[in-house]
Amino acid sequence: MPKGVRDFGPEEMARRNFIFDTIREVFRTFGFMPLETPAMEKLDVLTGKYGDEGDQLLFRILNSGQYLKSVDASDLSDGESAVTPKIAEKGLKYDLTVPFARFTVLNQHAISFPFKRYQIQPVWRADRPQRGRYREFYQCDADVVGTNSLACEAEIILMIQKVFVKLGITDYSIKINHRKLLSAITAEIGASGKESAFCTAIDKLDKIGRDKVFDEMHRQEISTASTEKLVPFMELRGSNREKVSALNDMLGVEGKPVLDEILRVLSLAETAGADPELVELDLTLARGLSYYTGTIFEVKVNNVSIGSVSGGGRYDDLTGVFGLPDISGVGFSFGVDRIYDVMNELGLFPDDTQVFSTVLVVAFDDQSWEYGWQALAGIREAGIQGEIYPEVAKPKKMFAYADKKNIPYTLIIGESERVNNTYTLKDMRSGDQTELSLEKVLEVLNTGQ
Fold first, then answer.
1. What percent of the chain has pLDDT over 70?
2. 3-state DSSP helix/strand/coil % of the chain, to nearest 5
3. How open is the CA angle 295-281-252, to the nearest 5 degrees?
4. What value, to the nearest 5°, has the Cα angle with vertex 306 and ends 305 and 310?
5. pLDDT at 53 over 80
């Protein structure tokens, strides 16, 4: 198996589906509609949207057939940049946002704006595999395009908090910043024109530390004098409102519009019921993707070994590169694989995610086995998950099967039950068993008591 990809067994899939179902339920509660896009896109759709580092992580797909037929010796001597366009025209999608922008443009006359959609699909990145970072992984995206309203940013904060309440994750921080605020800081420290290099470097602060971030900035011709002026911004502390007040003094009139926008997002979210204590203005948050233009988000769970588990932001003209200019959008994504690792590390998965059947029908003879099918039909008709052991076997073997599958009940049928038109229901957790009519069996199975 290639590195960075994984198989998922039944137990893992049950837990993953618990996460998927929770996120999907919240997305639908907020009025988002489902969408899917293909695993592959044309490379010209994908390239140039993620920054230079992101483009390097695209999985390129070789053209079908004789993919080398258009390559000559001069191309080989010119290197990768000359060869790649001739042998690979497609790539696996790097994220869900760019394909969504492409879909929006192609279907602009068939959809209503603002357009709210969610996607739950895998994406691929040619990254170096490590804990919490895979080459194939799932994203759960929710985006709105066709409106500049800051209510969308506020709802992102709300959705993140509602999902985490349902998942049982309580100790986390929703970090927010604004790309225009980063641009204002870049100008204030005397590094105008270096915004891209500045954002790429500062976004790595929590991974490589301040000294190495400054080293990277210096390599990108951001002066030592500029990085020294950056220190007070990096050391800014206090509540969100205290930080905004200090930034108003540090940036003056240039920074006021964007700081007012940040305060508006925070105020709207709090008015709608978000917990303000879980939201933090973080000036070192940059989000490396180059298409972000406004508010940006990142979520980190505290006291775990995993990095960010969610992120996103505002993009003002991503659809413009596909021929539909001036359509603003904003969205975010949950990283399911990282959320899984966090919940696993914290022991947050409910026990019932491992229950695939509520009851196993166990028969002690052939006639009872036939009789058991009638009971099983009634169990399934009542919407209860059930199965029958596929043959008459020794009781120890059948009960061991129920134990191994975490089936909480067995429905035991022998000659006595068959004659009395009853069933013996055994609670596999306590060992208690009672002879009951099918009606009473269904009542117990439905209530779990």
1. 94
2. 45, 20, 35
3. 80
4. 155
5. no
Please state at what angle helix 256-271 crosses helix 179-188, rounded to 10 degrees: 150
Task: Give the H/E segment covering residue 260.
Answer: helix 256-271
Give the DSSP letter string of 284-302.
Answer: T---S-TT--SEEEEEEET
Side-chain-side CA neighbours of 378 within 13 Å: the count stands at 17
DSSP-derived pairing of the beta strands 386-388 and 172-178: unpaired
Q: Which pLDDT belongs to residue 244?
A: 93
Residues 6+ apart with CB under 8 A from 213: 201, 202, 204, 205
Phi/psi of residue 236, each to 5°? -65, 130
Angle (CA) 328 333 337, round 5°: 165
Q: Tell me the pTM.
A: 0.86
29: enclosing H helix or E strand: helix 10-29
The correct CATH number of 10-58+94-346 out of 3.40.50.2000, 3.30.930.10, 3.40.50.970, 3.40.50.150 is: 3.30.930.10
Helix (H) or strand (E) holding 200: helix 195-202
DSSP state of 277: G
Q: With bands split at pLDDT 50, 70 and 90, how would you rate the model's confidence at 362?
A: very high
Cα Rg of the chain, angstroms: 28
* Domain spans, the chain: 10-58+94-346, 355-447
Query: What is d(CA 185, CA 180) in angstroms, rounded to the nearest whole number?
Result: 9
Query: Rounded to an integer, what distance in angstroms lies between the CA atom of residue 427 and that of residue 449?
Result: 9
List, in order, residues 6 or more apart from 333 with CB less than 8 Å away. Answer: 95, 96, 97, 139, 140, 141, 142, 310, 311, 312
As a residue count, the chain comes to 449
